[in-house]
Design brief:
Layout (H helix, E strand, L loop, with lengths): L1 H15 L15 H27 L6 E2 L5 E6 L13 E9 L5 E3 L1 H4 L2 E4 L7 H7 L7 E6 L20 E11 L6
Antiparallel strand pairs: 1-2, 2-6, 3-4, 3-5, 3-7, 6-7
Length: 182
């Protein structure tokens, strides 16, 4: 009996010192979450587009243009001379306010103040960046951005909610040409 116990402990020590064979990880890549995300984003975009089209239909006195960059805009004050539009590296001085589709002001011009921006060299909402490149000095334009051109699915964690389309009323005060500084 004593020998059986000793043999048992020796076998136990011997077996416990063996390295276990590594197991292969189990992972499944069906791609379904990516497909679900794409489907959800398409639904959100369609809902926002319907809301924006409804907003535009209510403003029947204005002519809205569709940008190839995926937003809508109208001129509040249009400059018809041959002045240039800002390009990469130009500095623009502008002021703006942000509203929702119910015309509730989220950020006023006074809150945001006058802004300066180097075109395509500073981080700002992609819609506003693209919108500024459409403007001439002295113009005032109202832009309607779907959420993916503004603050997207996160919002700004303050006044702008998730997946919220926004209205930006922008006045471009001055364009400082990048070549003027050299």
């Amino acid at each position: 009996m004593k020998n059986n116990i000793i043999i048992f402990f020796v076998l136990l020590v011997f077996i416990s010192c063996l390295n276990p064979a590594p197991r292969k990880p189990v992972s499944y890549h069906s791609g379904s979450s990516l497909i679900e995300s794409i489907t959800l984003n398409r639904k959100i975009n369609k809902i926002q587009e319907k809301a924006i089209n409804y907003y535009i239909a209510q403003d029947s006195l204005s002519v809205y243009f569709t940008s190839p960059d995926g937003f809508w805009y109208k001129y509040n004050k249009q400059v018809t001379n041959d002045s240039h539009k800002p390009v990469y590296g130009d500095e623009v001085l502008f002021e703006y306010e942000v509203s929702d589709l119910a015309n509730n002001t989220l950020y006023s011009k006074e809150e945001l103040g006058k802004r300066s921006l180097l075109i395509e060299k500073e981080a700002i909402e992609i819609g506003l960046q693209n919108g500024l490149k459409l403007m001439k000095e002295g113009e005032e334009i109202t832009f309607i951005f779907p959420s993916y051109k503004a603050f997207g699915y996160t919002g700004d964690y303050q006044k702008i909610g998730t997946n919220q389309p926004l209205i930006y009323k922008v006045k471009l005060n001055k364009i400082i040409n990048k070549n003027e500084n050299n």
